[in-house]
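>> received
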Amino acid sequence: MKQAFKNSALLILMSLLVACGNFGNLDFPGVYKISIPQGNIITQEMVDQLRPGMTKRQVIFVMGTPLVRDPYHQDRWDYVYNFQPGGGVRGQERMSVFFVEDALINFTGDFVPTSETAETETTQSIEETSTI
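>> returned
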C-alpha cells in the first residue's frame, strides 16, 4: 500500500512538473505587454530625400546614424528597424546605403524612391543635358 501511494504521488509530481514546463507560453488576459522598437526608424520621406552624390554627412543628416557600420566595409551602412507590438508579430525594415569616395552611389532595401521623385530626377537630368 505504501509503495502504491509513493508511486502515485511521484506520478502526480512529475505530471505537475511537465505541465509547468509550458507555463511561460501562456498569455494571461488583461496583462499589458509593451511594444519594443529597436534601431533606426526608416520612413518613405527619408528615402525620397536621398540623392546620388550626397556626402556621408548629408546622408547622416537625412537618415540618422547607421545602426551597423562594418569596420571592414566602411562604404556600406546598414539601417535596420525592428518593431514588435506587445505580444504581436515582430516586423523588420532594412536599408543598405553604399558610398564610393564619400559620395552616395546606391541604396537598397525595403524602401524604393516614389515615382514622383524618380520623375523629378529624370526631368532634371534631361534639362541639365539639354543646357550643355
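>> The longest strand covers residues 91-100.
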